[in-house]
Automatic annotation (TrEMBL):
GO terms assigned for molecular function: endonuclease activity; hydrolase activity; RNA-directed DNA polymerase activity
Organism of provenance: Phytophthora fragariae
Keyword Transferase among record annotations: yes
Keywords on record: Endonuclease, Hydrolase, Nuclease, Nucleotidyltransferase, RNA-directed DNA polymerase, Transferase
Name of the featured protein: Reverse transcriptase RNase H-like domain-containing protein
Sequence ranges assigned to domain Reverse transcriptase RNase H-like in this UniProt record: 4-109
Length: 253
């Protein structure tokens, strides 16, 4: 159905062992629940190692990013998940740096988290368990590419001035970038090579990346990219959806 901005939205989300899925929902004038939009993706290798509640939070964060245009500024909306302990996990006094970043992102929205048993969370459950995302059903030649690494030979960069003193409510931006690089296997491998250029660290890179490794450099904790010696080095944006959303929002503000 087409979105009706006069009616409240709600979100359903779920995570499996290998994927996350979510849907933006509304009730129509007759009280029938209808789908406005739905999204899903396969987890990255590092994400598959997250604890269960972190995977559920990952699905929720993914939903808020994908449906941001509808939900940001909404007076209040509900997020439904089949993980009952999620509300407790969000209030834990012992937060990892990743969790602290996520909570900072969640604070931009006005929503409540509600438990929805898995047997009733059918749509989100199905989206997070798409057969074409299941690694057990994939052959070695059918692996789904990482959407964040569209081309190993071309990094996601910006020429905007990244001010190391710009801060978020949790961590300085530079530190957030550094942490996000470490959580991304593609960029983490490049940084390990730049810090310790050995045959071993070089072998960990993909062939296209090895061919283009001279284009990368480090500016302290920041990874930079330049096409050649005449090109101005650009800061590589980590493959982190909430960081990218913050940068786009702040740049356009």
């Amino acid at each position: 159905m087409l979105p009706d901005t006069s009616r409240p939205f709600h979100v359903v989300c779920d995570a499996s062992e290998f994927a996350i899925g979510c849907a933006l929902m509304q009730f129509d004038a007759e009280g029938r629940e209808s789908v406005v939009s739905y999204q899903s993706r396969q987890m990255k290798p590092a994400e598959k190692n997250y604890p269960v509640h972190n995977k559920e939070l990952l699905a929720m964060r993914y939903a808020l990013i994908k449906f941001r245009v509808y939900l940001l500024g909404e007076q209040t909306f509900a997020v439904y998940t089949d993980h009952a302990s999620l509300r407790t996990a969000m209030k834990s006094p012992h937060l990892s740096q990743r969790m602290a970043r996520w909570l900072s992102f969640f604070a931009e929205y006005n929503f409540g988290v509600h438990y929805k048993p898995g047997k009733n969370n059918i749509l989100a459950d199905a989206l997070s368990r798409r057969p074409d995302y299941d690694p057990r059903r994939l052959t070695r030649h059918q692996d789904i590419p990482d959407d964040d690494d569209d081309d190993d030979d071309c990094a996601t960069c910006v020429t905007l001035g990244i001010n190391a003193t710009v801060s978020s409510p949790v961590l300085p931006l530079r530190q957030q970038f550094a942490d996000a690089y470490e959580e991304d296997s593609f960029y983490a491998a490049i940084i390990r090579y730049l810090r310790n250029p050995t045959a071993h660290t070089l072998a960990k890179l993909t062939c296209p990346t090895r061919d283009a490794i001279t284009r990368y450099d480090l500016d302290g904790d920041l990874l930079t990219y330049a096409i050649d010696t005449f090109d101005t080095p650009r800061v590589v944006i980590p493959a982190d959806d909430d960081l990218r959303a913050h940068l786009v929002h702040d740049t356009l503000a």
